[in-house]
Structure formats: structure tokens, C-alpha cells
Write a structure and sequence with these properties.
single chain, mainly alpha, rod-shaped, disordered C terminus
């Protein structure tokens, strides 16, 4: 618990302030002592002022009674002056120490002030740098703003181009759908044409088969005719040697014709077996088949002509043989007419 102040504390603090050249006040005394309330310090300071005049008139500060001997007064005065000088020296020492402290604090304050000045200068430079940076940032912001506006303009233009592209894409898709529809119609027409071609091809094959059968039948009939004529010619072996050779040639031709017919049948069988493969190349194969069919028809026509010619030759040979026989019969007068009549027709 802090100790209270008394008159000696207040008077001593007031004397110290007066020696320092400061006017004693309540606040200064409180600061000097370090404690005490204004209500306690105020009456004690007033009493100090009341006694200040008397103390100034008697600097020694010693009031001795008159009955005190002079030597004692002199000794007391001397002790009082020594005490005052000692107190004054101590006070001056304290003042010098306080002045040194004040000077140190002043130097520190000067250093702090210099530091503050340097800091202020640094802050000023920093502020200039920040201002410059701010100006650059503002310029960059303006540039960025212009760039953003340019990009927005470009974006609007690109959106317009994208809209046009989408419209064009829609048109292309519509055209593609129409082309797909046309392709599907063409494909259906192609299927119909292919089916029609297959029907026609099958009909052509049937007709060719019928013509081959008819040619085979005609060849068979021709072979039978030749056989009959051969039988007739064999009865006249001695006179018809040349006719027999002709018959042999005709038979060889008939054999060749039969082999050719067989080859044609084999070719037709091969074409039928390759019909699935030829379907992928139907356009080209149709042309070739038609050409082959025309060639077969032409060949058959030539064969018909050849066969007709051969028949004509046979008929002519028969007529020649008959004429020869008649000439021989006429020349053979020694033979009886009955024998000549039994020879029979050629």
C-alpha cells in the first residue's frame, strides 16, 4: 500500500522545482513526488508559499533563540550553510544527470526525428513509386478495357459468323437429307432395274436354252437324216465312196457341233453358278452377257446357215448321186430293166 505524503515531502519537491527554475504547481509536485492527490498537495503547497517570504529574508534558515550563545549560533549557522551547500551540490549533480538524460533523450529524439525524416522520404519515394505504379496500372486497365471492348466486338462478330455457319450447316444438312432421299429413290429404282434385268436375263437364258434344245433337236433330226442317207448310201457302197467320205465329214462336223453345244451348255452352267458374283458388277456383266448372247445368236445363226448349206450340199450330193446312177443305168444296157427298177429311190 503506497505511503501518504506530508509537509516535508511537498516542501522538498517545491524547493527542488524552484531551484530548477520551475514554478511549483500541484501537478508538478505530484509528478515530482510520484504520488499524492491534489486535495492533499494543495494545502501543503499553500503553506510552503506562506513560509517562502520568511525563508528568503533569512537565507540561513536557522532561527535560534536570543539566549543561545553566539558561538553556538555561529556553529549552527556554519552547519546550516554547509548543509545547504551540500544539498545544493547534490541537487546540481542531479540536475546535471537529468540534463545528460535530457540531452540523451534529445539526441534519441533527434535520431528518431532523422529516422522519421528518412522514413518520410522513403514513404514519399514509395508513394511516388506507388503513384507511378498506379498510373501504369490505370494505363494497363485502360488498355485492358480497350482489349476487352475489342474482344467483345470480335466475340459479337464471331457469334454472327457462328450463326451464319449454323444456318449454312442447316442448309447442308437439308441438302444432305434431300440427297439421301434421292439416293434412296435411286437405290429403289436400281433394285427394280436389277430385278427387271434378272428377269430379262433369266428369260434370255430360257430362250437360249430353248434355242439350244431346238438346235439339238434339229441336229438330232439332221443326224437321223444323215443316218438315213448314210444307210441309203451304204447300199450303194461301190458307187458312193466319195459320198461316204462326205458323210464322214458331215458326221465329224456334227460331232464338233455337239461338242460346241456341250461347251455352250457348260458356259451357261458356269454363268449361272457365277450369277451371285456377277450381281455386284451387274452393269458391266449385263453388257458383256448381252454381247455374248448376241455372239451366241450370231454363231447359232451361222451354224444354222452352215447346217443349211450342209443340207443343201447333201441334197445336191444326193441329186448328183442320183444323176450318176441314172447315167450308169443308162450306160449299163446289159442289165435288165427289172434290176434297175429294183434299185430303189435315193
Amino acid at each position: 500500500m503506497p505511503r501518504g505524503i506530508d509537509q516535508d515531502d511537498v516542501w522538498k519537491a517545491a524547493d527542488d522545482l524552484l531551484i530548477e527554475g520551475a514554478r511549483p504547481t500541484i501537478e508538478r509536485i505530484r509528478q515530482k513526488i510520484g504520488r499524492g492527490s491534489p486535495n492533499t498537495v494543495s494545502p501543503l503547497l499553500d503553506s510552503w508559499f506562506e513560509q517562502l517570504g520568511g525563508r528568503l529574508r533569512n537565507p540561513s534558515g536557522v532561527n535560534l533563540p536570543k539566549e543561545v550563545p553566539d558561538p553556538v549560533k555561529v556553529a549552527a549557522k556554519h552547519f546550516w550553510e554547509v548543509a545547504l551547500a551540500t544539498a545544493r551540490d547534490e541537487k546540481l549533480t542531479e540536475i546535471d544527470a537529468e540534463k545528460a538524460i535530457v540531452a540523451t533523450r534529445a539526441a534519441e529524439l533527434a535520431e528518431r526525428e532523422d529516422a522519421l525524416v528518412r522514413r518520410e522520404e522513403a514513404l514519399g519515394a514509395r508513394a511516388a513509386v506507388l503513384e507511378d505504379s498506379m498510373e501504369r496500372a490505370l494505363r494497363q486497365a485502360e488498355t485492358a478495357g480497350r482489349r476487352v471492348r475489342e474482344l467483345e466486338t470480335l466475340l459479337d462478330r464471331r457469334e454472327g459468323e457462328l450463326s451464319q455457319t449454323r444456318a449454312s450447316l442447316a442448309e447442308h444438312e437439308q441438302a444432305a437429307n434431300e440427297a439421301r432421299i434421292h439416293f434412296e429413290a435411286d437405290r429403289r429404282r436400281f433394285e427394280a432395274d436389277r430385278n427387271l434385268f434378272e428377269d430379262r436375263y433369266q428369260a434370255s437364258e430360257r430362250r437360249a436354252a430353248q434355242e439350244i434344245d431346238r438346235a439339238r433337236e434339229e441336229a438330232r433330226e439332221l443326224e437321223e437324216t444323215v443316218a438315213r442317207q448314210e444307210e441309203e448310201l451304204l447300199s450303194q457302197r461301190s458307187d458312193l465312196e466319195s459320198s461316204r467320205q462326205l458323210v464322214v465329214q458331215l458326221r465329224e462336223q456334227l460331232v464338233g457341233l455337239a461338242k460346241q453345244i456341250e461347251r455352250q451348255e457348260s458356259e451357261m452352267a458356269s454363268r449361272q453358278s457365277r450369277n451371285a458374283v456377277l450381281e455386284a458388277q451387274w452393269a458391266e456383266r449385263v453388257q458383256k452377257t448381252q454381247e455374248a448372247l448376241v455372239a451366241v445368236q450370231e454363231q447359232m445363226r451361222r451354224r444354222d446357215l452352215e447346217q443349211t448349206e450342209m443340207l443343201r450340199d447333201l441334197v445336191a450330193s444326193s441329186k448328183t448321186i442320183s444323176a450318176t446312177r441314172r447315167v450308169r443305168r443308162r450306160g449299163a444296157l446289159v442289165r435288165p430293166k427289172k434290176t434297175l427298177g429294183q434299185a430303189g429311190p435315193l
